[in-house]
Amino acid sequence: MGVRNYSLLGPDAQRAVKTGLAAADWYHTDIPRKDMKALMKRDDGPAMRDTIVLFAAMFLFASAAVWLWPSWWSAPFWLAYGVLYGSAMDSRWHECGHGTPFRTAKYNDWVYQIASFCMVRNPVTWRWSHARHHTDTIIVGRDPEIVAMRPPALLRIALNFFGILDAFAGWKRMILNASGRLDAEERTYIPESEHPKVIRIARIWTAIYAVVIATSLATQSILPVMLIGLPRLYGAWHHVLTGVLQHAGLAENVIDHRLNSRTVYMNPLSRFIYWNMNYHIEHHMFPMVPYHRLPQLHEMIRHDLPAPNRSIWQAYSEALPILIRQLRYHDDFLSRELPKTARPYRIDLHETALGGRP
């Protein structure tokens, strides 16, 4: 494929439509309808429990950090608060955007709105952006959420461990929207009827940030922005650490999530922060299955999936060499090996997408 154009307005976007990669019919592992219905059943209990634990922990960590400020003893509490604000909110934004964690729709929306604010992602814009990501996952020119492009911008990814580019892009987009405008790429996937909502929310957020900054200036203290805004920077590292592994180094322009997504076994704390999104092949195949049932789904379909990575460290030891090689050879990628019990790839479509490679 050579040099790629990831713009939603570029030639690769047009090529994806012409070749049938856009809005394609994706591969799914067969699951009996009865079992699928049980997996998709929503329940307020697990999400309510986890949400109470999350916000209670955020309150306690923030209170301890403020109480100990400006002593260095406050640093561990700021770091813990930051990870919950700048990383756990990423997974809450993601899952509640799908509307699956809670059975009660308004609970999903409440958490989605809060998490969107923390992550500086307009809840209207990103609902449509993420819908496109699921429709055209890692399809060049169609997916607006590709992180590890080819050649990979490794410096950009490294900077985003501190939210430096991602968060500032969010604030820049917020100001643009608050001025009454949307950029050209947003207009390709957000219906015109939704534009006023994008603008209204951006203006509310801009007002909130203005109050926080004004309070910080009036009190001559950094504490207000340490609580609202800056955690998006100093707490971003965990969501980037885990999020990069979702698709990095894997195949582009295929319509089988077993090729372009990665499942990684993680420790319980990371799974709580990440809300089980480490089961990422499973999530992409069946996005309407709630996060707390993804381990069960994994056990049901693992016979049809590549072997999961055993840990975050082992996943990076696999992905990083590929990303480094892609700096020189853009078409390099990790080809996933399926177990003998798996159904085969749809070779006819993959040969076209991969330029003749089986």
Mean pLDDT: 94
Q: Which descriptor suits the 3D outline? A: globular
Write the H/E string, N to C: HHHHHHHHHHHHHHHHHHH
Largest sheet: none
Radius of gyration: 21 Å
Class per helix and strand makeup: mainly alpha
Tally of extended strands?
0
The low-pLDDT segments are none
* Helical coverage, percent range: 55-70%
What does this structure look like?
This is Fatty acid desaturase. Pfam families: FA_desaturase. The chain crosses the membrane at residues 51-69, 153-171, 207-230. Residues 70-314 form the Fatty acid desaturase domain. There is one protein chain. With 358 residues, the chain is mainly alpha-helical. It has one domain (11-353). The chain is built from 19 helices and no strands. Helix 3 packs antiparallel against helix 4 (75-98). The longest helix has 25 residues, at 44-68.
